[in-house]
Amino acid sequence: MMESLEQIKSRIESAVAGAKIDIVPNASPSQQSSLLIDNEHAREIAKFLRDDPALRLDFCSNATGVDWLDRVATKKVKVKKIIEGAEKEVEETQQETISGYLEAVYHLYSIQHKHGPVIIRARTNDRAAGALLPSLTPIWRSAEFQEREIFDLYGIRFDGHPDMRRILMWDEFKDYPMRKDYREPDDYEYEPTPHDDVLEKAKQHYAPRPQLDGAENITAQE
Amino acid sequence: MTVSSRAERSAVEGSHDETLELTPRDPSAPLGMTSRLEGELMEVSMGPQHPSTHGVFRMNVALDGEIVRKLKPVFGYLHRNHEKIGENTSYLGSMPYTDRLDYFCSMTNNWAYALSVEKLSGIEVPERAEYLRIILAELTRLQNHASLLGFLLSDMGAWGTPLMYAFREREKILDLFESLSGSRMMCDYMRFGGCRVDASADWLARAKKIVDAFPKFLDEFEMLIVGNEILIARTQEVGKLSADLAISAGITGPMLRACGVNYDIRKVDGYGFYPRFKFRIPLGEHGDTYDRLMMRALEMRESISILKQAFEQIPAGPVMNPKVKIRAFRPPVGEAYGRIEAPKGELGFYLISDGSPNPYRYRVRPPSFINLTILEDLCLGHTVADVMVILGSVDIVMGEVDR
What we know:
The complex is a heterodimer of chains A (222) and B (403). The longest helix of chain A has 12 residues. In chain A, the strands form 3 sheets. Chain A has a 5-stranded mixed beta sheet with strand order 1-2-7-6-3, covered by helices on one side. A two-stranded antiparallel sheet of chain A has the order 4-5. Chain A has 4 helices and 9 strands. By secondary structure, chain A is of the alpha/beta class. Helices cover 18% and strands 31% of the residues of chain A. In chain A, strand 6 and strand 7 form a beta hairpin. Helix content of chain B is 47%, strand content 12%. Chain B has one domain: Cytochrome-c3 Hydrogenase, chain B. At the A-B interface, strand 3 and helix 3 of A face helix 1, helix 5, helix 10, strand 6 and strand 7 of B.
């Protein structure tokens, strides 16, 4: 049996100096909780997970991105309040705004010990265009194409990746299609008969027609 | 989105590749044929419309004479952002769409997706449905491996005949799929919590008959190919993959086991009722194309053994968990990663639920896409003709690679 996430967390923290790790709980029946690793030590942590003899997570099965928009989380907090002169502990629901971020998730397994998955995730500070995370391709080669795909679809750049360019979309493509706020560009090329408001909108996409220099006045009779 | 001219496009594309390093010619050397060509690499774009790229797959190859010095795969010709569509569809709505991933193996795609949703929401599957899933998954493995061998031989120049032999067998299995699910290839048969319809006793008897006759085809096929001199010359020692690189690069399925790594998710995870079955995992020794090819032939024998056991053991009963409401289905908040041993390798689905009827994140972990990571390493130093054979032995389907 594999160690629990708490044990793995404490072992990483003692092995990698200064590493900060949080456990992201998962309440669903799958019970796949994950470790949130800090970006500064990400590669050292990954190296430890791969090389540690008890864990030997030598197989990075899945690497993918997730886009989290700004969201409001409600949580129940126990607060001390003075009610009718006496101090009491009361449960209160608090609302907390979590600002959005992008996330890279890695599912790790061990082929040697045949256990897993250990899930690690790394987060960017915000959803701005220049989001940067450390690449784990030097640790697990299988992340090579998958990190390229994350960059392509989510716009997270991976620092230290040997070949960071788009993989599925074409190189000139501007946006990141898997982001939650992605909007398809208006494209009326295939609209057979643009009319009314469609026509108004389509006008922005077409260059004005060139002047015909009186050619339209030429008729067959002349 | 801007539409640029072809010249602009190629300028942008070119700027992303590192410049090829050319060895300067020694001016004192005589201008013979060999010295003139020495070090001069020629860039060739193989594909996307090449018959042996198995779909619209392109490789940019730098050639030194006929030897491959550099190879960059180019993806995306079949990209339709499957994952985004999955996020905008209900959980049930994605099920028929998973058929289109690896369109050779829609049954295993269905199973992988159903398994992930079942993990996400803790659904149990009736016993008969689990047996039916195993029967269909192994039938899928049979037809996938058989047609792969046919395609591979076709790539090697054995035009037509082996492929037709394999397709004859595949057709029988597709007939079975059709009579069960209504469709030959886009089966859409499984549901979270079971299977869509039950298989009749008559269907099972027909399936058993086909499986019983399958070894005869295998014997014949193996007799024709295994010891064939040309096949051995074309495949042995071609495209060797070391076990360490294979593990690091996340290679799964027959390709990993051809390197001698004993890792089969049917045994490791023991999903479904696989722990109840007796079967062996064939392992290769050299990790070359010949081993990858033989891995498929040997795995088919094991699949037949699993199928025979399943036909004996399959119990009567319901095929669908009655508690599951597959329409307006809302799993609890959380995430799950489920994976199965698809014929091409590890097929996984990663789902994040926010409690709404659509998944917040729907990710497919496609085996053939990740198995292509080391295509360049396999092909370096080999000839162009070998690239086709190596690519054939990786076993890719573009519906899954590009998603």
